[in-house]
Here is the input.
Amino acid sequence: MANLPIVQYEEKIIETVEQNPVVVIIGETGSGKSTQLSRMFHRRGYSKSGIIGITQPRRVAAVSVARRVAQELRVQLGEEVGYAIRFEDRTSDNTRIKYLTDGVLLRESLANPELNQYSVIILDEAHERSLNTDILLGLMKRLVRLRASNLKVLVTSATLDGNKVSKFFSDCPVLTIPGKLYPVQIFYSNERPSSYLESSLKTAIDIHVGQPEGDILIFMTGQDDIEKLVSKLEDKVQALEEGSCMDAIILPLHGSLPPEMQVRVFSPSPPDCRRIIVATNIAETSLTVDGVVYVIDAGYVKQRQYNPSTGMYSLDVVQISKVQASQRAGRAGRTRPGKCYRLYPSKVYEDNFLDVTVPEIQRSSLAGCVLYLKSLDLPDIDILKFDFLDPPSSETLEDALKQLYLIDAIDEHGTITNVGQKMAELPLEPSLSRTLMEANNYGCLSQALTVAAMLSAETSLLSGWSKTEKKRKHTMSNLPDGSGFGDHIQLLQIFERWDQSDYDIGWCKDNDLQVRGMLFVKDIRKQLSQIMQKIAKGPLDVRAHGKSEEKQGYKNLRKALCVGFANQLAERKIHHNGYRTLGFKAQVVQVHPSSVLKPDELGKFPDYVVYHELIATPRPYMRNVCSVEMRWVMPIINKLGTLDVHKLSGGLGHIDEEPEEKAPDLPKKGANVAAIPDDRKSQIQAARERFLARKGKK
Ligand code: ADP
Ligand code: MG
Here is the structure.
């Protein structure tokens, strides 16, 4: 520990922090920022007047680092050192050092806007530029003024863009901790491989057979590819002639790995054995694995992007940025000189790679973020003028406002409604919180809680299911099928079956459901129930039961979903099994093949559905769909027709290019406050007419 670079700068760090409310600390990955800064402030007595909070953008990092620090301090995890991530709180009254995701800190600030329980807040991994950390940066700016006397804020980053953050915080000091990086030799390939997986495999085996000892770290884009590569590597290594080279252990590393598997990468390799670690981006800066000498970098990362003009998400494999490439290479030089094999030509790196990664705020839906900021109800915070390090596009903000309006979270003037205020208290995406509120009115809260919990479990529940459709169908036959209404209903039925089995673990196993995931759902459901009771200020019936709903075709639940997902509705195209979305820009989409919603005996899909997510993979699909009825859709179509973005935005202050002193009620130039385009109006009109025509037919 003592030799970690950051510890050698303790005096300097403490001195600077004592004199300044905000300090930026830049230090190479592995220099000890995440594990040592908190201990330093704890040692220096900062934890006497409050908790030392350290945010992490990734759940697994929060857990892993907390576990490590507890170990170092020889305390039990959850006592002096604890962590809190969404739906999982391992802290106690004794906790002085608390690791938490940036999302959890945002949520805490709703209950306590001044975050008085904290004496030090460290926004760690700021270079990741997660949406929540970006919002926190804006909040901190305000908070350090309010709590000048008793709050210290640190922003830490592994890359060298500290000046931007420093400027943001009125030129606060930037401490750069010189890292002990050894030189890393970089090799480029002559061309992009046709399969990055095969190419990674070959490179790894070449290194293993031909290079001296030292662990290999391979960057893959996701869990599937990691599993494939791990199994191929195992085969290859086993096929090597005995005694021809040292042994090898192959270790996966990704966010959905069970904790006991995750800790394996932190134990050093046995003598005469090489570790080959196959990881997602998580090993780029969030987690430091010691002993790595060789890095294989294909230059790709999987990134979720939101397109506000289509309302569509895509999970794309994209090229990493130059900053990321250099971080990855850096992993090879922590303990001695290393080598990095880039599976792309240097020309591609020079010409095609972006300099820095696009911050999440510029590629996410902002409905949750806007609702959060509106719910803060702070006199001096105006979402429209909110101080972001990099402001989101006006199109994305507008998209968020429209969605919030459609689900009644804000009124036509853009003011947060009662219902919106309550929604913000739930740690869920706005559409699901709205569904819960509505379900409570319709007496089907219990069912809606189950659906929300099933959709919110971060791990895949069905990972026992084989990826191939054939096997899956076979397995599916034992599970409920949604009774023809779709995926939400199926999720509900699965949970209810499990409830009837008295939460039997054997039942999960028999049905190839992930036990850990299902237990998590049960826990999430309980937590959501508690929050709902708190919001309702009284006891609610939240027991899992549902037979009566089943008899009525799950009407109430589907109706509640229709209200919550008002911005995620689609109408079947006449004479066709494709759908057209009823949002702000019509998209032609299909039901995802994995859905349990199938055409009826006449070969027809239901006329209207809500979907949980639109994904472009690359064809546009709706994932998780549930049929709804025409008469519930009509009020929403009407509401769409009345929507006036002018009023909603009320003048998007900071994103307007025009000078401030313009009269606020003058129509503003620019795309940000454009009225509904004519084609949109006619589209709504057309939908309404189709609706009326059908109604007439009945
Ligand atoms: P930084 O945040 O600056 O990237 P960390 O504080 O995460 O650095 O890591 C400092 C050192 O602690 C590294 O050598 C790393 O390998 C080690 N370390 C961090 N987490 C764990 C863990 N869970 N188990 C074992 N070692 C760890
Ligand atoms: Mg760190």
In short: Residues 33-34, 124-125 surround magnesium ion (ligand 2) (CB under 6 Å).
